Amino acid sequence: LPIKDPEYLQRLTEAILEAAGASKDEAAIVADHLVTSNLYGVDSHGVIRIVEYLQLIEKGEMKLGSPPEVVRNFKATANLDGRSGIGQLAAKKAMEIAIEKASEYGTGTVTIFNSGHIGRLGAYPVLAAQRDMVGIFYVKGKGGDASPMGGRKALLGTSPMSYAIPVQDSPPIFSDFATTVSAEGKIRVMKSKGLPLPEGWVLDSKGKPSRDPDDFYKRGGSLALFGGHKGYALNLFLEGVAGALSGAGVLDEIPSANAAIAQAINIEFFTDLAKFKKNMKHLVDEIRSSLPAEGSSEVLLPGDIEYREMTKRKEKGIDIDDAAWQDIIDVAEKLHVMVE
Amino acid sequence: LPIKDPEYLQRLTEAILEAAGASKDEAAIVADHLVTSNLYGVDSHGVIRIVEYLQLIEKGEMKLGSPPEVVRNFKATANLDGRSGIGQLAAKKAMEIAIEKASEYGTGTVTIFNSGHIGRLGAYPVLAAQRDMVGIFYVKGKGGDASPMGGRKALLGTSPMSYAIPVQDSPPIFSDFATTVSAEGKIRVMKSKGLPLPEGWVLDSKGKPSRDPDDFYKRGGSLALFGGHKGYALNLFLEGVAGALSGAGVLDEIPSANAAIAQAINIEFFTDLAKFKKNMKHLVDEIRSSLPAEGSSEVLLPGDIEYREMTKRKEKGIDIDDAAWQDIIDVAEKLHVMVE
Lengths: 340, 340
What we know:
The structure is a homodimer.
Chain A: E1 3-4, H1 6-19, H2 24-39, H3 49-59, E2 69-73, E3 77-81, H4 87-105, E4 107-115, H5 125-129, E5 133-140, E6 160-167, E7 170-178, H6 184-192, E8 202-203, E9 209-210, H7 213-217, E10 222-223, H8 228-244, E11 258-266, H9 273-288, H10 304-316, E12 318-319, H11 322-334
Parallel strand pairs in A: 3-4
Antiparallel strand pairs in A: 1-12, 2-3, 4-11, 5-6, 5-11, 6-7, 8-9, 8-10
Helix pairs in contact in A: 1-2
């Protein structure tokens, strides 16, 4: 594993993007997003994505110099056209507008349609939590991946959801998860390593559980939704509030782009902010200090693993596996970007 | 099983409540809520609850003649004090205020603290969907029931969530579920029948899966949250946005009352309403007409089972099991209410 300094990765990723035609701003935002994902340990959404982004840029499916545009704008709500541009730009802007509106109206709600790949969802609600608000960010994933409960046809997306809540004297609680049992990226990794999948991730073409990734990739199977009828209900909720509400559409009507909804809730409009954060601190403290289950070494909060990984990787650098690093070197060299 | 006419059950429940001191309005709203729950097949939240409500009224934990009061009121948000009154009153009022605010500001968000038992959650977001809005209703359940992931201490509530989304030419999609694997009421039913629980519902005092309800009721165990770290993250989200945001508090700070958040989203502020409803119709049609998994006879949408049960029970009446019926007769007789 080559271990890389985060600042070096940031510079390299920026240089690759700029060489591909991105503006300084675009390159900086995307590079920061990807390197931060690596720092949090979410390597599937880290700098390796640059390879895919360059392909999308080349095919014209992700456009540089095409910033998001507000197409509907009311007091507490807005709708944003991502204009097939960089998803991180649209997602960040949506959350920033939501925060601004929540400052004045208590809540701000912004939908996005026609956005490029939005990246690691967890990045956005935290922007609200840093401003002492509750942040919510939901995405309707492209269709054709997951089957409805009791069905076998891959109609639905892996649609993920994310939130962040501020806590006194602590970083926010945040969580970010797909409504399928496993994100598609993880299954791809298992397949590339030739490993069988854990039970329950994938269904074959008859809708039966399978441990072979190719039942999904090659033989007409689907991804399983998590949590039975509850995860199914959540997945359809995201089809509604991110897919249909943004105007993007449902199921496979958005083959490559992302649709999303960002919401900021201004705590001070509902209760005393200091009391709220103290309540959340009490929650966190009680859980963290409670006795672990037999066989478990500690009780964690959502976000804990990511915060720990961040501390470790900031100090020791970011591990990138050899194959991923070779892919990055290849795109860099193709664009005549020097790799140290 | 005695089969009862819904209108008769409505009259009887109203009469019992009025005999216990409820106003005509209070009695009508609660009776309608309970009978509708029975019609939807959700008997755990049906007329049998009257027995428990009367006990709460007697103990002074649920107050009659104590309507909810808006204590913070801004343009798009409000906070409601349930004043230990009838929960159905507070919940309905919160959703109605949210709808009113959403008419003008695109979204309306109302939190509730200090409310009596709110009943079947699914009843409230549907009020928004009937007005062509998306409805959301989340509750923070009393603490002391569920353990955090990896833990063994019953710190958290069964905190349920619910939403409804309008669909063209169809009743809304709606869903209503606890963030524990099973609602507590279902476990109580299994216990009363002396049946072992399905694997995964309950954890013993060491945090290990158990099939014995008494590991939860008598021996310091806990309820398991659904869906691994995802259900755990959702449960904590509800602690935040319903518990802390309403001012009620977290964990066991609200021993008997409910805290909640109601939100209405006015679709027309984001996209064309007709297009939205058509999109949802397309979603529903594609799913319903898709091939079922092997061993499954059809593919359903959230709410389908409830709508079918409603149709059947409106025609054939409501089955109430003998023990439950006897309990209802007992409270009626105690209050000198005639039972036909």
